[in-house]
Design a protein that fits this description.
heterodimer, A: alpha+beta, two-stranded antiparallel ribbon, 2 strands, 23% strand, B: alpha/beta, disordered C terminus
Chain lengths: 84, 270
């Protein structure tokens, strides 16, 4: 069943979605001009700091660099688990 | 009023800068403006061929820069549109023959006599690009909905910002609506979300552009060309008209051609 599900998923996800996500990551890299090592270190440090205050989903961390009129914005998005 | 200088650039080669320059310049002239198009791709000139003005080149941009002639003397008047002129590139020199300061001076000489100066930038981000960028009042980035083009466009946007030019606008060229529907091509909102700059126009992939180039007649002058209509929309937006962005479909087949004939869409616009 797993094979069928994966086949269906690959049919549903068009190549444009793949391209968009790949581009998003490439553009973030280009815009922050950090090398891969620095990016990994940055992500780890963000996760470490936020983990002191919140229960976070580490894999959900997403960094974006958005263009603005005068300056670019570094936008960090991360999933925080609900306290139940 | 002195001319507005528009620089058409992209980073990536082959995405349609020259086609865009030719068609935007022709559309602005058709809409009543006095326009000069300048080819800054020294050594690899193309704008003359796309406009069908090859074979009429006497002087070129490097002659003007080296002061062998006045800018006015080097201009070639278009065959069809009386208010459109071309300043061609040199074919035998290289890009170091012109500096950004030279370009600013040449444009300063031409500004009083024109409404628009449209500059075709070469591909890349080296001297040719810097030459084309220097005199710009506005920058237009051309990209296609493909990863390498978007990646290069993004880099160029950064360089335009660094040069302290106003925020550029983007033309998304060669969009294939069928591929977008199949989710095998980025759509316009995707590209805009990635690049983060405003949209100036969407041009569909259209065989009529190749036909137009074969003939040396800009596609804007063919009423049946969907790409031509889209380029005209771009010119109207540049002139301040509020033209909504629609993704045009390219019509094929006998039925649409018959309908086109019935509606009287054939021949020239002059």
């Amino acid at each position: 069943m797993d094979i069928v599900r994966r086949w269906l998923q690959s049919r549903a996800e068009g190549s444009s979605d793949i391209a968009k996500e790949r581009l998003r990551l490439v553009l973030v890299h280009n815009r922050v001009s950090l090398n891969s090592e620095q990016m990994v270190a940055l992500r780890q440090e963000i996760v470490t700091v936020l983990s002191r205050y919140f229960e976070i989903d580490q894999d959900s961390l997403q960094l974006d660099v958005r263009r603005g009129e005068r300056a670019n914005q570094l936008v960090t998005t991360i999933s925080v688990k609900n306290r139940s | 009023m002195p001319a507005t200088v528009l620089t058409i650039t992209s980073g990536k080669g082959g995405v349609g800068k020259t086609t865009t320059t030719a068609n935007v310049a022709a559309a602005l002239a058709y809409l009543g403006k006095r326009v000069v198009a300048i080819d800054t791709d020294i050594g690899l000139r193309n704008l003359d061929v796309v406009l069908g003005l090859e074979g009429r080149i006497v002087h070129d941009l490097v002659d003007v820069v080296d002061r062998r002639c006045q800018a006015r003397q080097a201009l070639i008047k278009d065959k069809r549109l009386s208010a459109l002129y071309l300043l061609p590139a040199s074919q035998t020199r290289d890009k170091s023959a012109v500096t950004p300061q030279d370009m600013v001076r040449v444009c300063a000489d031409l500004r009083p006599d024109f409404d628009y100066i449209v500059i075709d930038s070469p591909a890349g981000i080296e001297q040719g690009f810097q030459n084309a960028l220097a005199p710009a009042d506005e920058v237009i980035i051309v990209t296609t909905p493909e990863a390498p083009a978007v990646q290069d466009a993004d880099r160029v946007i950064g360089l335009v910002e660094k040069a302290q030019k106003p925020m550029p606008r983007v033309i998304i060229n060669r969009l294939r609506i069928n591929m977008v529907r199949r989710r095998d091509m980025l759509d316009a909102p995707d590209v805009l979300e990635l690049l983060g700059i405003p949209l100036l126009g969407i041009i569909p992939e259209d065989e009529s552009v190749i036909v137009a180039t074969n003939r040396g007649e800009p596609a804007v002058l063919s009423p049946r060309s969907a790409a031509g209509r889209a380029f005209e929309d771009v010119a109207r937006r540049l002139l301040g008209e509020n033209v909504p962005h629609v993704t045009r479909t390219v019509s094929h087949g006998l039925l649409s051609r018959l309908l086109g004939l019935i509606r009287g869409q054939h021949g020239w616009r002059a």
